[in-house]
Amino acid sequence: MATEVHQQEEPSTSNADKMRAMNRLPLMCNDVEKTIKELSVKDIKSTQLDTMRSKVRRCLEEVIDDEEYGQTALEHVWHSCYYSLICHIRTSISGWGVEQKERCSREISVLTVELAQLASLHKKRSALISVYMGDLRRYAFMLFSSDRERRLAILHYREAVATDGHSGLALNQLGLMKQDTKMTTALLYFMLAHLAERPFHGAFGNILALLTRATSQHRKGRLLLLLMHCFTSSRIIDFNEYRTKWIDQIDTELDSHQGAHVAFNVHLLSLASACLATKDCEEQSRAVSTMLLDATGRLLRGIEELVASESAKLLKKGERRRRASDSNESVHTDPEEARNSKNKLNNDGEVTDYWVAGYRMVREQNRLNGIEQDDDVVELSEDESSELVDSSVPPSDEIREAKTLLVALLHFTIVTVKQLYGEHTPTSIRFEFEQFAQRISDTLNSFMLGDRATRAELNFYRPEQVDLPIWYVTTEDAMLLLPTLVRRLIDTPEVPILFDEFFRFVPIASNKDMVMKNMAKLRLACRAKQEEARALLPVYVIPEDNVVLDHLPVLRDLVNDGQLRVVIAEDTLRMMDKIKKGDIRAREGIRWLQQGICEQGDRLEMRKADSVLLCAEDVAWKVQTTKKSLATKPVTVTILTTDILGEQYDEKPLMVGAKISRENVDQFQTRYKAALKEY
């Protein structure tokens, strides 16, 4: 009976001890604060202060693990015993010498060691304590400009994120460390802090403040301009201009194998869309997410090209190996030895290629579903495909870039699925997202390990890299997040992708109205037609003589818009010089040409040529040889004429040579204005 009474009274006694500790702790912290305020510069290292902090820590250890009081007590101790000392140092450091600064730096290191000991004893609060240790190092960096302190602060913050990935505090502090050196990286950290499960409530204000600072510093990066417009304005016309420039930049960077930079942009814009959605900016959020959805086709195509390039390398390597093997077999005639060698090869190559095995599975599934396949596809053998899954061999640059882009697409899918596939999302956007989900499922299957399909989400890379923190997107090893994001993708209920031995696209709303689907298809067809019309706009415009004389205002508008370059052939100038005495139009044209070349030389120029056609051929040849990014356009140079060419050339110009078209000036002006209105 006595034992039962003792067991019932023990919890109440423990609670009483916690209450007494909570009552003593504020008084002890106030005493420490008073002592810190009375310290002189020479007494930063004080035995009395060390003793008082030691007593405070012993009192804190009685309640630090308590669910109700633990975090509050830790925060109180931090502000009173550590942060107040930092504030005291900051107010009096201006007149310090080198010796005093070194003594202060050592004292900050001692404070960090005290917190590290506390974190090792109380794992439950280790994430928050790691943030406090990072803050101490950050303040030391601000006070003494030591790069070592900066690196240590970042390490402590990253440790806090790895320990507690649901808190936004450490992510916000990482953004503070990066905002002076890498502004876009800092923005990404602030957005992650705002979107965390336990968000840091000042993170959105930090985003706006950093964008305002970028505006005041006249930063002109396309990504920053796009973000500044999204967070500070709602003019859809300006957004379309930024959107077009950013998508054009993606094409250029993918062609130059800058996939890591493109992936980072996708990460940042995906998070920006989600942040805007939390602040009732639905229109801006959907505009950004829809822009990214339109760009996914380019990214998936880039991934396919990278994988195809690596496959071609493996085929060539396998062919050389087979030739060497055939030559060796002609020398070794022992059948038993050949059989043993073959068995050993099969045992070593249990794991098949990352994409080939999955690709075979998809081909077999498509065959069963009646989908036609290309007959000219060459598959890799087991020996050739097993090379890329050897964990001791690092992935090639192509595979690394492909995985980095795939990580960005998975992150985009997880973050923006509610904006693009929500209940109130327009049907046309939902239909586009379903098409993207189908393609991303096929891409994931192509990266899947064949004979370990039941663990495919763990086998995109090494299993020990499954639960990496999200800040890896800011590093060169962003591809290591692939297993983590695959698992999140599967666990996200809004994403219409399931995993059952392989990835399958399963639309959530399969009973859609066919009328709405047809409207969505019409919208896609209209957009494709607009893209085609825009692609047919030339880079250079060369007017004939009559156009310069009779349609000079049209040429002025083209130059002022800055979308095209106007080139005047020297033969046209000679013609106007001959008739300038009797024709006011020629005099106006010469004055405009002289003034425009001086003031707008980047958009108006004159070239030596005996005719307009020769001038066009010269311009087209130089573009083809020097500007590879423009050489892919179907039309590079357009000759403007006053001749009537017929109604069949209202939408598509008359081609008179390779990359050269001839078009009526009025028809061209109508098509040009329509393209500007749409984009």
From TrEMBL:
<dbReference type="GO" id="GO:0070034">
    <property type="term" value="F:telomerase RNA binding"/>
</dbReference>
<dbReference type="Pfam" id="PF22695">
    <property type="entry name" value="EST1-like_DNA_bind"/>
</dbReference>
<protein>
    <recommendedName>
        <fullName>EST1-like DNA-binding domain-containing protein</fullName>
    </recommendedName>
</protein>
<dbReference type="GO" id="GO:0000184">
    <property type="term" value="P:nuclear-transcribed mRNA catabolic process, nonsense-mediated decay"/>
</dbReference>
<feature type="region of interest" description="Disordered">
    <location>
        <begin position="1"/>
        <end position="20"/>
    </location>
</feature>
<feature type="region of interest" description="Disordered">
    <location>
        <begin position="317"/>
        <end position="346"/>
    </location>
</feature>
<dbReference type="InterPro" id="IPR054534">
    <property type="entry name" value="EST1-like_DNA_bind"/>
</dbReference>
<feature type="domain" description="EST1-like DNA-binding">
    <location>
        <begin position="29"/>
        <end position="259"/>
    </location>
</feature>
<dbReference type="GO" id="GO:0005697">
    <property type="term" value="C:telomerase holoenzyme complex"/>
</dbReference>
<dbReference type="GO" id="GO:0042162">
    <property type="term" value="F:telomeric DNA binding"/>
</dbReference>
<feature type="compositionally biased region" description="Basic and acidic residues">
    <location>
        <begin position="324"/>
        <end position="340"/>
    </location>
</feature>
<dbReference type="InterPro" id="IPR011990">
    <property type="entry name" value="TPR-like_helical_dom_sf"/>
</dbReference>
<dbReference type="InterPro" id="IPR045153">
    <property type="entry name" value="Est1/Ebs1-like"/>
</dbReference>
